[in-house]
Amino acid sequence: MRTDMTDKRTRVSWKSELVDKTFLEACIQELTSNGREGRVLKASSWALVAEKLKTDHNFVVDKKQMKNRYDYLKAKYEMWLKLKNKTGNIYNPVTNSFNMTNEKWEAEAKDIMNVFELLKKDFITPHKQFINVFMRFYMQ
């Protein structure tokens, strides 16, 4: 248990698409250069990714925050991909939306946890970088 208040982790906001893009590109670079430990980047790679975020965006995060963000992006990507690939669900890349009735959304919500995340206006279609990262991390 932490007793020193100065040791408390600062909450960060990952609202910038540029920060996410830099984060994923740095992950790809580290994965390509240094490989991975199990399912994640090596500890030294996480440090380099953090340095890249700090240098490029003055965005300061620790390993746990980066890992949490990675897990969140991965889950969101998997949810989007599952829904996109389902028969009968029509995805429109121009509007970045799924053309489904409320009843169909409710039915999907039973199968796909947090599917309503995909209805948010600020939901960003997974970048090519997402696909590259997830393919490299999980398909090797």
Major β-sheet annotation? 2 strands, antiparallel
The overall number of domains is 1
If you compute it from the alpha carbons, what radius of gyration comes out, rounded to the nearest whole angstrom? 17 Å
Structural class: mainly alpha
N- and C-termini, Cα separation: 37 Å
The helix count comes to: 5
Mean pLDDT: 76
Number of DSSP strands?
Answer: 4
Task: Give the strand order, joined by hyphens, for the main sheet.
Answer: 1-2
The backbone outline, from C-alpha atoms, is elongated
**Helix amount:** 55-70%
**Element string (H = helix, E = strand):** HEEHHEEHH
The unreliable regions are 1-6
Strand content: 5-15%
What features would you describe in this structure?
By secondary structure, this protein is mostly helical. It has one domain (15-138). Helix content is 55%, strand content 7%. The protein contains 5 helices and 4 strands. The chain has helices at 17-34, 43-57, 63-85, 102-111, 128-138, and strands spanning 36-37, 40-41, 90-92, 97-99. The chain has a two-stranded antiparallel sheet with strand order 1-2. A hairpin with a 2-residue loop joins strand 1 and strand 2 (40-41). The protein is elongated and about 45 Å long. It starts with 16 loop residues before the first helix and ends with a helix. Mean pLDDT is 76; it is low at 1-6.
